[in-house]
Design a protein that fits this description.
Blueprint (H helix, E strand, L loop, with lengths): L1 H22 L2 H12 L5 E2 H8 L3 H13 L3 E6 L2 E6 L1 H19 L4 H7 L2
Antiparallel strand pairs: 1-3, 2-3
Helix pairs in contact: 2-4
Length: 118
Amino acid sequence: MKTRTKQRESENVTRYADIFTALGAEHRLQIVRLLLSAHPDGMVVSEIQEELQLSGSTLSHHLDKLKNEELVTVTRESTFLRYRANAEVLQEVLRFLFAECCSKNACVPADQVVKLCR
């Protein structure tokens, strides 16, 4: 049983490392923050492009990376693609980051984590 738990933890760390890699690019971080500001409606590609002044190919590349890590979702609306921040995955990342400090040594009290997100 301990082996399975360690394997699951290792897989989670790998998954979160991939997510942080995706967020580690300046434009991708800007996109996620912009989409969070438009949550829950999201934005169509042209709105994102206009706001961030990125070329179509650059924006497409970054949106694909974010979508691959499930940080954003995309839906087709007629001829438009609407992107939304995936709040569930972002909350999961926050829980991962704060799990150890809140449960083992309380360096950040759990109620403070909630306040950080407001």
